[in-house]
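Problem: given the chain below (319 residues), write out its structure.
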Amino acid sequence: METSEISGRIPVGISSCLIGEKVRFDGGHKNNAYIVQTLGLFFAFRPFCPEVDIGLGIPREPIRLVERDGQLRCVGTRDPALDVTEALVDCADRQRGWQQDIFGYILKKDSPSCGMERVKVYEKNMPSRAGAGIFAARMMASFPDLPVEEEGRLGDPVLRENFVQRVFIYWRWHEAVAAQPSWSRLTRFHARHKLVLMSHDQNLARALGRELAAAADGDLAAYLPRYRSRLMAILSIRATRGNHVNVLQHIQGYLKTQLSADDKRELADSIEHYRQGLLPLIVPITLLRHFFRLHPHPYIEDSHYLHPHPRELMLLNSL
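Solution.
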């Protein structure tokens, strides 16, 4: 994805404290410089704090997740009678209007309201990291295809690239298919993302391609939600070095008659060194971009694999 293809920033939901808003229980914030200064160049953040929305105030008594009689409840740490479980569920339901118009969500880790996973759940004052924030869980259940990540996990280069890639593809789905549905637009969308899907799971990518071919000319409106769910499920699988190597070698085949012996050797060596972990993914990608500028191929030019997101994010440099 070239930066020039983006018409404005992509709407993304976010826990308010992560962009510096002083909404924490202690009146503080958890401003995240990478999110604000880097992702903020491409994402238009929609901040929201469910704890403030339900009227807990700033500052406020901290809340936590507890298990009571087999049920997960969100209660005060000092006053167990303060139970905001239903209030947080209702809050999530009230936000569906604007949440259906975003293309990703970044949540605050460990939060009993906003945590995506591994939130502490107390049973008889003994914690286990087995829960998800009440608001976050309800939101994710309402929008199962929406790319969601926690700010803490964005420090992992693989998870960071995976999340950003999913946001851009979810946004492209809306722009290219959902806004003006047609079988031809869906088929082209799939073709442009086929190599990206192959880098995540080759078998599932092939299966989705066969399913799309079999469904063509059927009930488009009925098939679109199924395709989108399958698409996002495949993308949620972490891309592996081995799958990337297979895709790179596949792309290399489109240059077999154009390159000199020395160029072929240089490209093959860069892919092999990436396979061995000696080079980051950006090196063979950059070399392929160079060769395809000299020897254009319509399928590769149309594919998003070599340009999955803006280069300024430098997400391929650490993979």
